[in-house]
Prior knowledge:
Blueprint: H1 3-6, E1 15-19, H2 28-42, E2 47-52, H3 57-64, E3 75-78, H4 92-98, E4 103-108, H5 117-122, E5 125-130, H6 134-150, E6 155-160, H7 172-179, E7 184-185, H8 206-227
Parallel strand pairs: 1-4, 1-5, 2-3, 2-4, 5-6, 6-7
Amino acid sequence: MSLRKDVKTKKDHNMIITFATQKGGTGKTTLAIAFANYMSGMSSRKIKVYDFDYQKSFFYKWQEDEESELPKLYDVEIIGDEEDEQPFSDLETLINLKESEEIYLFDLAGTLDQKYSDLLIYSDVIIIPFEYSDVSVKSTLVFKNLLGLLESEAERIFIRSKYDKGYKYLNQQEMDKELAKYGVLIESPVFKRNCLQTIDTRKLTYEQKYAVKKPFNEIIEHINESLHITL
């Protein structure tokens, strides 16, 4: 029996957004931090982040930024810290999240693991960064197939990451066509920018905001329209 049907509340009162890929190195955590920062500046909802990546890069950066004089935008919590821990084994945590009015953002590891299955199934939105390298293409298609096997009903949003506008990607047209069958491919890419390598959890600089504004606005607009909510 689907949890989505049993505990579904009004769509304007819950939102679980998960950043996930099957391969590391696509800029997933950087984009997750940027998205959390961006949302905190435009949404009236409270943002809460869960770092579900075994490297804990989001959490450690947030912890490091405690020394900043800038105000905290959101809290970040580690989940599934123990290797064998199954944080959603009884689904109680997910049920509580879906009954909240906050926006919950998860940063998952760049690997396939059984303990992520429930979150992938019951997320409202899964944002999947990818590159046009052969390795990234193959792993993105594997991840897409995994979501199909899990019968996840989440909105799938594919976003081009570290995109080099001066380079001709020979597999782009074929890849775009394939991904469009299984989710929404955001038209505006996140271009390769050095400024995003220095991102923190307290602010977006002018250059960083410019780098993500178009694709993030497309993502937010799609979520609001498809799920009939206001982020």
